[in-house]
Write a structure and sequence with these properties.
The structure holds two protein chains of two kinds.
Chain A (H helix, E strand, L loop, with lengths): L12 H6 L14 E7 L5 E7 L1 H4 L4 E6 H4 L28 E2 L5 E7 L2 H7 L4 E6 L6 H4 L13 E9 L2 H5 L4 E12 L8 E6 L4 E5 L4 H12 L6 E4 L15 H13 L3 E4 L2 H7 L3 E12 L5 E13 L9 H6 L10 E10 L13 H19 L3 H6 L10 E2 L5 E2 L4 H12 L1 H14 L3 E11 L7 H6 L8 E7 L5 E5 L8 H13 L6 E4 L17 H27 L7 E4 L2 E4 L5 E3 H10 L12 E6 L8 E11 L5 E11 L6 H20 L31 E5 L16 H18 L13 H8 L1
Helix pairs in contact in A: 11-20, 16-17, 17-18, 19-20
Chain B lengths: L1 E7 L2 E7 L5 H8 L18 E4 L2 E4 L12 E3 L12 H8 L9 H14 L5 H7 L11 H18 L1
Parallel strand pairs in B: 1-5
Antiparallel strand pairs in B: 1-2, 3-4, 3-5
The chains are: A alpha+beta, B alpha+beta.
Chain lengths: ~775, ~160
């Protein structure tokens, strides 16, 4: 059978296109109460007084609490990635009770019989603040004169990583490219706002949450709240997108559990979009100083990166680790002799940052791909040629990079050639020259991004060596039911990625059962008890591989029973298309017949148990390294600064493909999010530390009208690090597309003296760059 | 409280509501019509789009009392006799959804668009759906789905 590789329509769609969904906010439980949070309007202040009593007499109000009410039991929100020995990890109370450090931090709450009444009563809470100075600029924050976000100061850590002789690489280097790029702060903006429902019968606790990480969340919530892990069930029902923003242990999840415990009633909290923009962790926000040393021929010798990363006010689940995920990617697909990377994590009075699609790798890819264009200009060659002179050639794989990663497979030449052909590169260069010649008001720019990334998080040993608090394995169980149907229990937690479909394809092939006969169970720590969840493009390359291995183990068990049924040795059986056949004969039993024989158990081998379940835990031996070439053509109106993407071609290599439909969808969405960073999105704080982009009217997600049709294609160089030959795809588009777009804009304007436009490249910024 | 009479997905409801109650909360919290989700507070995202007397509206910007005497169609009432609406089917065929949160609104907005423009160009589809945001798909497959859905609707309604 060949389910794998087939463009199966998704199993998930049925409920999603008919509205029979189970979003967390849909839950209605008998006696359920609604929580509304009062949030700090100050970026930095001491809380001098809170009086919630005014809220208590309001209609429908059951209770109201301040941070002080939870002080003894709320613990501190966890940071699982202490990247250095001496990292400063400040206490992070879920509800502030002494000091607030960003606008939006929860300071009190009301619990009422419906969401309107809870929100109404917030106005009756009295709270006094003593204002403190906000800290908003990373470079100023590191000066002695700066006010302090925390008593320990504004520096959280400095993390260094050096390979090769960087001084030798830069000494007498004929070409040095020295640039500073700004990664603006972004708001992930999953379409489903966060929502939480907590309930307890006094013994067991159940938390429904719009989360990417039910398993990790259960462990962390047990640690934070003291609710024993075996008394806590976490359920991620249908989850409407995440992009890293729901890879978090949030204040609201902790507080919902504490409130449910205190009141003995189920409670629900659903954020408004404005609340979400303020308090869902943000992404990016780095200042990147990159220096590249090269020969006169454009051969790279070494790379120095000095990074300032805005942590925001606190360290959340993996906040300090995000820039590290980029550290190993600044060298991209290129060979060099030395790499020197330093990152300093800085506290400011803003919402904490954390994982956002790509998490460190888009930033790294942006810097190196921008710098490659600068190198090409510096020595007067085509930017593609600059890349060709430095990239790892296909015959050199597996290749251990200067960062110490071993790229298992890839073919940058093939992906680039395919992309160039689809794009019509040479023709566009001719048109560009013509427009330049004519001094046309609308200039054409061509942007290139030849990226790779490390994903599929991750070998547990490597994570341990980076001081990450957990492992990177993934688990699957496969069960053969009496009627021959199969259940796949996965530890991945999909929120749009189509695991129910793709895992069915993998299991169907391995078990020889129809695609329709497989059900995938996920997202509930009771029914899918072991897992590490979904982020970092890990689900297929770790979790999907676990499904395959568990399925194979199940077939081995079924083989034993089939051999007994047919009175032969297991070795004498062939297994194909769902049937065990005695070699050289017509004698066969289908896997469904074996399933029922096991269930009936009338004739098991002596001493055997009915056991047609199998599990597997995969700890990957390496990261996954998808790669590709993205080409973008933009038209820039030099009179208005308006940028129009004229064409966009992406050729990605994600190894073997389980479902091309899903892969294409992931690439499309990834590209859109990368373009959004390049052209539209930015979280803006004012001089007092107020977030100005609290609505979708201010924080500009691209609409259909803003984006072009993407031309996508693939090359297929199988991964050698897993038996499916697959590579991650969830973040690739986002990692690749941002530099492709900005390189194109700069390329269009370079004859007019422009060598950088700060993202997002709004018409105003482009126009100003031209003045 | 105000008494309103609204037909939702073919069923008549008579309810007492606060004048400030949003239509989307009326649908979700009062009637259990949770197929219509909420994505923003500011009428930007379109996730909550329903049809009010045959035209698409964002139900977060309509008060329940404004729907008094009206017909509301939500995603839950779109399929008939067990058959998906052609636009629902097209979204499935073209992989025009991932997380699916924007999908009910996107489908209902698309149907309204096709009513006005039975054979829309890709540009018309993109412009027409500007008020419905999707964070997953990059819109390529949504455009394809709407084109396909429009063709199927033309056949079905002939």
């Amino acid at each position: 059978m060949t389910e794998v590789g087939t463009a199966r329509k998704r199993k998930e769609d049925g409920r999603l296109i008919t509205g029979r969904t189970q979003w967390t906010d849909n839950l209605q439980l008998p006696g359920m109460l609604h929580v509304a949070f009062l949030r700090s309007p100050m970026a930095h202040a001491r809380i001098s007084r809170v009086d919630v009593s005014g809220a208590l007499g309001r209609p429908g109000v059951i209770a109201a609490f301040s941070g002080q009410d939870f002080a003894a039991e709320q613990g501190s929100l966890p940071c699982a990635w202490p990247v250095t020995e001496d990292i400063v990890i400040p206490d992070h109370p879920p509800m502030a009770f002494e000091e607030v450090r960003y606008v939006g931090e929860a300071v009190a709450c009301v619990i009422a019989t419906d969401r309107y009444k809870a929100a109404d009563a917030l106005e009756a809470i009295e709270i006094d603040y003593e204002p403190l100075e906000p800290v908003l600029d990373m470079e100023e924050a590191l000066t002695d004169a700066s006010p302090k976000v925390h008593a320990a100061g504004n520096k959280s850590f400095t993390w260094k990583f050096a390979q090769g002789d960087i001084d030798a690489a830069f000494a007498d280097a004929p070409v040095v490219i020295d640039r500073t790029y700004i990664q603006q702060r972004l708001i992930p903006t999953a379409m489903e706002p966060r929502a939480v429902v907590a309930q307890t019968d006094g013994d067991m606790f159940t938390l429904h949450s719009a989360t990417q990480i039910p398993h990790v969340l259960r462990v962390m919530l047990a640690v934070v709240t003291g609710i024993p892990e075996h008394k806590l069930r976490v359920i991620a029902p249908d989850v409407g997108g995440g992009f890293g923003s729901k890879l978090q242990v949030t204040a609201e999840e902790v507080l919902a559990l504490l409130i449910a415990r205190r009141l003995g009633k189920p409670v629900k909290w659903t954020e408004s979009r404005s609340e979400g923009n303020l308090t869902v962790h943000h992404g990016r926000d780095q200042i990147q100083h990159i220096q590249l040393a090269a020969t006169q021929d454009g051969v790279i010798k070494g790379l120095k990166v000095d990074l300032l990363a805005d942590m925001g006010a606190y360290l959340m689940l993996v906040t300090p680790g995000i820039p590290l995920l980029g550290a190993f990617m600044y060298n991209g697909i290129y060979k060099m002799d030395a790499l020197d990377f330093t990152c300093t994590g800085v506290f400011t009075t803003k919402m904490p940052t954390d994982a956002y699609r790509g998490a460190g790798r888009p930033e790294a890819t942006y810097a190196i791909e921008r710098a490659m264009d600068e190198l090409a200009v510096e020595i007067g060659i085509d930017p593609l040629e600059a890349r060709r002179r430095n990239w790892i050639r296909h015959e050199e794989f597996p290749y251990t990079t200067i960062a110490g990663l071993t790229y298992d497979s890839g073919n940058y030449e093939a992906a680039t050639d395919k992309a160039l052909a689809l794009f019509g590169y040479d023709k566009l260069r001719v048109e560009q020259a013509d427009r330049r010649e004519r001094n046309d008001a609308v200039q054409l720019g061509i942007g290139i991004s030849t990226y790779t990334e490390m994903c599929g998080l991750a070998p547990s040993r490597v994570l341990g060596s980076l001081r990450y608090g957990a492992g990177g394995w993934e688990h699957a169980q496969v069960r053969l039911l009496p009627t021959g149907k199969a259940e796949v229990i996965t530890g991945t937690s999909p929120h749009g990625q189509g695991h129910e479909t793709a895992w069915s394809q993998i299991a169907a092939d391995a078990l020889g059962v129809p695609f329709e006969d497989v059900t995938v169970i996920h997202g509930d720590t009771m029914t899918a008890p072991k897992g590490m969840d979904t982020y970092g493009s890990r689900s297929l390359v770790v979790g999907g591989v676990a499904v395959r291995k568990a399925s194979e183990r199940l077939v081995d068990k079924a083989r034993q029973l089939a051999a007994h049924m047919m009175e032969c040795s297991p070795d004498d059986l062939d297994f194909a298309n769902g049937a065990f056949t005695v070699k050289g004969t017509e004698t066969a039993k289908t896997i469904q017949e074996v399933a029922f024989a096991g269930f009936a158990s009338h004739n098991l081998p002596d001493g055997a148990e009915y056991d047609l379940d199998a599990s597997a835990t995969i700890d990957p031996e390496n990261f996954s390294y998808p790669h590709g070439t993205h080409l973008c053509a933009v038209e820039v109106d030099t009179e208005t600064g308006f940028v129009k993407i004229r064409s966009y071609v992406a050729v990605d290599d994600v190894g073997h493909v389980i479902n091309p439909l899903i892969v294409e969808g992931q690439v499309h969405g990834g590209i859109a999010q990368g373009i959004a960073q390049a052209l539209y999105e930015e979280a803006v704080y004012d001089a007092e530390g107020n977030l100005l982009t609290t609505t979708m009217a201010d924080y500009l997600l691209p609409s259909a009208a803003d984006l072009p049709d993407f031309v996508t294609d693939r090359t297929e160089t199988p991964a050698t690090s897993n038996p499916l030959g697959v590579k991650g795809v969830g973040e690739a588009g986002t990692i690749a597309s941002t530099p492709a777009v900005v390189n194109a804009i700069v390329d269009a304007l370079r004859p007019r003296g422009v060598r950088d436009v700060q993202m997002p490249c709004t018409p105003e910024r482009v126009w100003r760059a031209l003045q | 409280m105000t008494r309103i009479s609204v037909t939702v997905d073919g069923v008549l409801y008579e309810e007492e509501v606060e004048p400030r109650l949003l239509l989307v909360h009326f649908l979700r919290d009062r009637l259990g019509k949770t197929g219509t989700p909420i994505g923003c507070d500011t009428t930007n995202c379109g996730a909550c789009t329903v049809h009010l007397d045959g035209r698409s509206v964002k139900s977060c910007s309509v008060l329940a009392v404004q729907a008094d005497g009206s017909q509301v169609l939500t995603i839950e009432g779109l399929a008939s006799n067990g058959s998906l609406h052609p636009m629902q089917q097209a979204f499935h065929e073209e992989h025009a959804l991932q997380c699916g949160y924007c999908t009910p609104g996107m489908i209902l907005a698309a149907i309204d668009l096709v009513k006005d423009d039975p054979d829309p160009t890709d540009e018309a589809i993109r412009d027409g759906l500007e008020g419905n945001l999707c964070r997953c798909t990059g819109y390529c497959n949504i455009v394809r789905a709407v084109r396909r859905g429009a063709q199927e609707m033309a056949v079905t309604h002939d």
